[in-house]
Task: structure prediction
Amino acid sequence: MGYYRSYSQYLRERFGCRVYRVCLDGGFTCPNRDGTYGTGGCTYCSEEGSWGERKGPRGGTPPSLEDQVAREIGRVTKRYGAERFTAYFQAYSGTYAPVGRLKELYDRALSMSGDFVGLAIGTRPDCVDGEKLDMIAGYIESGLDVWIEYGLQSANDSTLDAVNRGHTVEDFVDAVRETKNRGIKVMAHVIIGLPGEGKSHVLRTASLLAGLRVEGVKIHNLNILRNTPMAMLYEQGGVRPLSLEAYADLVVDFLERIPRRTVIGRVSADAHPSVLIEPRWSLNKQEILRVIDDNFRRRSTRQGRLCREESVGIRE
Result:
């Protein structure tokens, strides 16, 4: 057993076989890019969003869902020996469309294989409402493992303002409350190393998530990506990426305060080499995992050791 409860461990416990995500682009955009809230997006986010940061340029209109599902199932089956799959709407804000359109897309993707056991949707806390959440909760009744992944990034409103998130911490708390009250699992996304943040800010974010009792957390280091406002700030000396050692230390500080049952979806950010400026260590996943594990070992600690869970209004 490792020092934290990984997502792969959770899947093995629940399904007893190799389950991998099939990453999909539903053709969504983002209210922080289409003019609803703004047009520039978050200061750290490339034009391609998280999809392009991991996979490279989006290249215009995405392929059909049918082509994406077939290609991704073939890839994860060949590479990882996957036996079951989760349909993961990853690109941009996966609930940013009318509820009827969302259901049509989710249904189409899930109908393409009888081996889908889950549905995961990446989105923003200000891109859901009761009608959408009720619709998504319906997939639980069909036996699917259903997650919504909300970008929080920081539990500090001043930081969210500085990086142009376009929503508040309260928006996130409200979305989590409404999502969990419908039985949908929540995976929160956070970034360690945002400008102006230190250890106290990281611990505040961990404490918020522990109190909310989210089912999962994804931790990302701050990557400086080409053609972003964050890259301009970096060139002006306004932000300095953390060293791998400093980042690993903060990851352990964070995870010590996250309940042991919480699933950890990732502990570092992916970055496509074509868009990454710094830190270059972000490209070496195995080294990142090694340094984080070494830090846990050296400190004789593990996930949840310093956790103090306090309810913040989730109805049981």
Q: What stands out?
A: The beta strands are 19-24, 84-89, 116-123, 145-153, 185-192, 216-221, 224-225, 263-266, 276-278.
